[in-house]
Every structure is written in structure tokens, then in C-alpha cells.
Amino acid sequence: MPRALLIVLDSVGIGGAEDAAAYGDAGADTVGHIAEACAAGRGDQAGLRRGPLHLPHMTALGLGLAAEASTGRMPPNLAPQGTLKGAWGYGVETSKGKDTPSGHWEIAGVPVAFDWGYFPNTIPTFPEELTAALIERGNLRGILGDKHASGTVVIDEFGAEHLRTGKPIFYTSVDSVLQIAAHEETFGLQRLYDLCQIGRELCDPYKIGRVIARPFVGSPESGFKRTGNRKDFATPPPADTILDTLDTAGRSIVTVGKIGDIFAHRRTGREVKPNGNDACLSAAIEALKDLPDGGFVFANLVDFDSEFGHRRDIPGYAAALEAFDRRIPEIEAALKDGDLVIITADHGNDPSWQGSDHTREHVPILSFGSGLKLGAIGRRESFADIGASVLAHLGVSHKGMGAPWLLALCHGRACPGRPGCGSVAFLASGSPARGR
Ligand SMILES: O=P(O)(O)O[C@H]1O[C@H](CO)[C@@H](O)[C@H]1O
Ligand SMILES: [Mn+2]
Ligand SMILES: [Mn+2]
């Protein structure tokens, strides 16, 4: 029985969203603008990286072709030179919003049809009764911030006052979030998590997607730094996702990084949550080693978004893409015959864009594995096609949103595709055909 690995490169969008203007993002293009900046020497940083964006493995999987199909422009240095090694295309987000839960839930078969709640870009941003309830139930002296902000800037601004007063820092963004930053040692990590749990309950009537704990360390003298103990308190998806479907079918599930949080820990299998892209990718590769037949590994790599996209750091983002790309051979080496890998993203976060928020974009869909039919899977009208394709590959029937694309489930590199070999190819139209 085949297995599947789904990797979400958080915020690695490829531009071109037709509805981007409605989000203030017309023209945003995360990968395209990083590639252009690198080609123009604006991606150089001493000791980190230099030169054109170098992503040989993702290029061979069709990243440049997917980007070109999405925007009409081939990003510099991403045109494939040799043989293509993957099936490539791009996904269009149908959900409302451009945040992590919308993107991930849609990937997993549940597009967001309702409107999230958002806090206005005013000071204060939070409704008085919400703040009052948080202060009372959280036993607080008050709150700091109370505005739209970037998380690293807001701890620089209020960190010292937080240490003096013990008041936590509350902020939000254009996303449906309430974020609470507090010093991990003086305020206490568990106390921050408990406060966020209270916040989660109080935010439900406002339809807020996530309450996020943002612990940090440091001092006014040394500066403040966020730690890896961020924790997202998400509202659960409104319908069954592929995780529910696979769990019901008795399949083994491993979720890596933020996935557990994003799906509110519902049917998220064995959760592994190390800190950072590299450690999360290692954990995903490690999980493949003892993943039984029919199993599913679902990983999120968040550094692209949180460390570089929101920070508008082009060299950092480029270096992170290159670091991921260098490890694709390790993923290939961990695969068994019949395994499927899909690499995608949940939204954009163009580091060349104004502000510090996500950007509405198409996402790349790159897949590979033995027996997989190579070539274009085209434009997928919903991210839900990704989850549907995972289910199709794993042979689990699916009644929800999304349609699987061209997959050739030919279990074995040497499969001659003889009649009756049992393999199934899903054609782009969605009609299954025998053999390959
Ligand atoms: O600036 P930081 O704290 O990284 O916040 C960002 O992280 C949130 C979740 O992705 C986004 O809504 C954005 O506000
Ligand atoms: Mn995200
Ligand atoms: Mn983000």
C-alpha cells in the first residue's frame, strides 16, 4: 500500500491570484519577487548567501513552470534545464482570508466559506468588553499594545514596560488573530498558554481564527527575542478534513510542526513539534522511516513565513528556500516504491511587499514519487485538490471537496502497466484509467 508525505512551505506563494486586489495584494508574488531580487543582487547578504536564487531540485520538479503558469512570467533562474522530475501545477485559493488556517483547511478539503472576524486597524483594536474579560479572567493588571503590529517590533516597543508592569502585550494583524506576547521567564510560559486558552474561549463569538502565544526572552539591555515555544490556539475546522477521513479509515498519521495546532489537535495522529524548518523537515523524513503502509505524514515548515516573510527579509527568505531545496534528495532517499510527496504552500508572504502581512497568491503544487506520472497537472481551482489527491493516492474514498489530479499509482518502478496490474491513473479530467 502506498504512503504520502505532504509538506506545506508556509507562505511560499507564486503570485497571480486573480482576487489579490481585494486583499490589497495585486501584483504580490513571493517566489517571483525573491528570484528577481536575487538576480539583481538584492538577495546578497554577507555570510548568508549570494547570487541568483539557486533551487535546482524544486526547479526540476517544476517550480519555475508552475510560477510561469501562475503569473505569465518565468522567475529568473527557475527555468528547468534538464529532465523534469515531477508533476507540477498551481492551486487557487477559494477560501475567504489569506491566513494559515484557511489555506491548510482548504488543502485538507475544507475551504472556508464563512467570513472570519477581524480586529480593526485602530488603537485600541480590541473591543472593550473583550479586553475587560481577558483582564478579569486572566487576573491581569492591564494590557499593552492593543493594536496592529509586527510581532518583533511590538516586543521591542513594549518589552521593557512589560517587564516593569507584568502586563502582557496584545496585538493583531490583517489576519484573524489575537496574539499575546509575554516574557517566557518573568511572566511564565504556562501562564501565557493558560491566558491564550482563556482568550480562545472569549474570541469564539468574534469568529477569530487563532489566539497565538508569543513567548520571548531577553532584556532591554540585550534586546528581546522570540522563542520556539509559540503556540497557536485555533478554532477547529467546521467539517471533516482528510485527517478525519484517514483516521476513520484506520490509517497511521504523523503531523509535524504547526499542523497539530492548525487543526486544533483533532485527529492529528502522532504530533511532532520541533523548532525550525530544518528540525521539522528532519522529523518528517524520520517519520517516513517507520510509517506503515497506507500512512500519511503532514508537515508545515513555518520559518519561511514567521522568520522571513513577515520580517520582509529577502536574503533570509532566499536562503531558507535554498536550504530546503538542498534537502530534497534526503526526502527522495527516504521514499519507498509507491510513495507520493506533495510540496505546496498555504498563502503568500512576499518579502518585497509593503507592510508585514500575508499576501493573497496562488500556491505551487509539486509532486514526485516512483510511478507518478510526470508533467503538468495544470491550474487547480481549489487547494482542496491536494487533499483529494492524497486520499486518492492512499486509496481512501473521498466524498468531500476537491478532485484528484493526474496520479499514476503504479506500485513499483518496473511496473509494465500490464492489464490487471491493479494500478490506477487518475487523469486530469478526474476519470480513472487502468495502467499507465
Ligand atoms: O508579526 P508576527 O507576530 O510574526 O505575526 C504574524 O503571525 C501571524 C500568524 O501567521 C500573522 O497574522 C502575522 O501577524
Ligand atoms: Mn501560513
Ligand atoms: Mn504568518
TrEMBL record:
Q: Tell me what reaction this enzyme catalyses.
A: alpha-D-ribose 1-phosphate = D-ribose 5-phosphate; 2-deoxy-alpha-D-ribose 1-phosphate = 2-deoxy-D-ribose 5-phosphate
Spell out the InterPro entries in the cross-references.
Answer: Alkaline_phosphatase_core_sf, DeoB, Metalloenzyme, Phosphopentomutase_DeoB_cap_sf
GO cellular component terms, semicolon-separated: cytosol
Keywords annotated in UniProt: Cytoplasm, Isomerase, Manganese, Metal-binding
What Pfam families does this protein map onto? Metalloenzyme
Q: Where does Mn(2+) 2 bind?
A: D305, H310, H358
Name one molecular function that GO assigns to this entry: magnesium ion binding
Q: Where does Mn(2+) 1 bind?
A: D10, D346, H347
Q: What does this protein do?
A: Isomerase that catalyzes the conversion of deoxy-ribose 1-phosphate (dRib-1-P) and ribose 1-phosphate (Rib-1-P) to deoxy-ribose 5-phosphate (dRib-5-P) and ribose 5-phosphate (Rib-5-P), respectively.
Q: Which protein are we looking at?
A: Phosphopentomutase
Supply the source organism's classification. Bacteria, Pseudomonadati, Pseudomonadota, Alphaproteobacteria, Hyphomicrobiales
